[in-house]
Amino acid sequence: MLSRFDYVKPQTLEEALAYLAENAGTKILAGGTDLMVMLRRNAQMPEHILDIKSIPETRRLDYKPQEGLFIGASINVNEVAGAAMTREKYPALAQAANALASYQIRNRATLVGNICNASPGADLSGPLLVYDAKVHVANSQGQQTVAIHEFFTGVKKTVLQPVDIVIGVSLPDVDAADAVFLKQARIRGHDLGIVGVAARLTAAKEFRIAMSAVAPTPIRLTRMEEQLKDRPLTPELAAWAGEEAAKSIRPISDVRSSAEYRRHIAGVLVKRALSQLLAAGGI
Amino acid sequence: MCERYGAAKTCFTYIDSGLPRISLHCRVNSEAVNAFVDPSMTLLSFLRKELKLFGVKEGCGEGECGACTIIMNGLAVNSCMVLAVEAEGAAITTVEGLSPDGGLSILQQEFMNHDALQCGFCTPGMLMSARALLNRNPDPTEAEAKEAIAGNFCRCTGYVPIIAAILSAAKLEKEARAK
C-alpha cells in the first residue's frame, strides 16, 4: 500500500541530523497523520522515514516563568490541549488544540507537524502567531530559531530545508490570559476549518489578530492591529473590526466553502472574538 | 500513481516492499507479540494480516472514518495512520480484547441492548473510542460522548442509539464498581 521506504528511529538528535544530512529523500515522521495519507496516495515517495519520537529534545513540554512554554516536536495535540499551563496561560492555543480534527487524530497529530505541513488552514498556526511563537530548527550545522510569522512561505511551503529538523516551538511568557480561538467548520469535532480566528489582547493592551484559511499562509492582520491600537474595546469597535477584517482578506473558493462565505464568516468571527475578549474583561 | 506497479495503477492493497524486515515486540490484547515486519506496513495491516484480528476494520485508510480505531498505550488511535514498526514496545487493545472469557463486556452488551449497530462495520471502532472515553472519563456527558466518537463514522445506524449505549454502559459500569 505505502511506497517503498526503510524506517529509522534514532535515539539522539545528533544521530538524526547526521542521517538527514547523508540521506536525501528522507521524510520526518512524528505523528504521521499527514504523512501517512501522503504515502497512501503515493503523493510522497520517500526512500527513508526518520521517526523522531525517541529524541529527548522533542519530548519536552514544559513551562518556565520568564522563559515561557516549550512544546517539543513529538508532543501530540491532546497533550498540548490537556496541559494545565496551556489552558491557564495560553487559552487560545488550548482551544485550537481541542478543535483540531478528531480525538483519535489528536492523540497522534503533533503541533509541530501541524505547522510543518503548512496548510493555509492549520488550526494551531493562528494561536502561535498571536503569541509570537518561535520555531526551533536544528541541522548538522547548528541550531537556530525562526519567528513564526517568517516560517510560512506559501501553500504547503515553509522556510525549512530538507536537512532541517524542527525540535519544537516556544511561546514567550505572557501575563494576561486574554485570548480566544474561534473556528468555523462544517462538522463540530471533526473537520478542517473554513476560517479560523485567534485574537489576543496583550498586557500592554495591544491587539494581536491572526487568521487561517483566508490566504495562502496563516496571516496576522497587522494593519488592523495598528488601527485598533489605543482604542478602547467596545461593542462598536468589535463590529468595526469584523467589517474591516472581512474587507482586508482575499480568500479562495474550494471544496469546503465559497470565497464569499469565507469573507462573511471571517468578519463574524473577528467580531465575535473581540466581543468575547470584551466580555472577559478586556478594555 | 504507483511506482511498484506502474504509473497507471493505484495501490490500494498492501504490497511487501522487499526491504529488510524490522523486529517488533509489543503486547496485543495482553499477549506478547514478537515479529518481523515490513517497514512500510501499517499497524492496521499487521493486526489483520499477521495477527488475524479481523475485528479491526479498514474503512477509508486515511484517518477519516475511525473504523480501524484501537487503543495504543491507553490512547484511542487510528491504526491505519500508524506504521506497524511504530508499535515497538506498545500495549495494544483491539475489539477482540474487550470481551471477557465466554461473554461480552458491559459496553458491548449495551450496544446490543440499544440496537446500536446494523451492518456492524463501524462497531469495533465505535467500541474502542467509547472504551477509551470511559477509561479516561467514567462519567461522560452526552456532549463528551459525542465529541469522543466524532472521528468514527456510522453510515447506517445513526448515532442516537450509539450515544445512548455509551451513556448507559457508563452508568452500569459505575454500578458494577460500587458493588
TrEMBL record, chain A:
Keyword Flavoprotein, does the record have it?
yes
Domain called FAD-binding PCMH-type: residue spans: 1-176
What is the protein named? Molybdopterin dehydrogenase FAD-binding protein
Q: Name one GO molecular function term.
A: FAD binding
Q: Which PANTHER family match?
A: XANTHINE DEHYDROGENASE SUBUNIT C-RELATED
- Supply the alphabetized keyword list: FAD, Flavoprotein, Oxidoreductase
User: Is the keyword Oxidoreductase in the record?
Assistant: yes
From TrEMBL, chain B:
Domain of life here? Answer: Bacteria
- Keyword hit for Iron-sulfur: yes
**Which InterPro entries does the entry link to?**
2Fe-2S-bd, 2Fe-2S-bd_dom_sf, 2Fe-2S_ferredoxin-like_sf, 2Fe-2S_ferredoxin-type, 2Fe2S_fd_BS, Beta-grasp_dom_sf, Diverse_Oxidoreductases
**Which keywords appear in this protein's UniProt record, sorted alphabetically?**
2Fe-2S, Iron, Iron-sulfur, Metal-binding, Oxidoreductase
Return the Gene3D superfamilies for the record. Answer: 3.10.20.30, [2Fe-2S]-binding domain (1.10.150.120)
UniProt pathway: Alkaloid degradation; nicotine degradation
This chain belongs to the protein called: 2Fe-2S iron-sulfur cluster binding domain-containing protein
Q: Which organism is it from?
A: Acetonema longum DSM 6540
Task: Please name the taxonomic classification of the source.
Answer: Bacteria, Bacillati, Bacillota, Negativicutes, Acetonemataceae
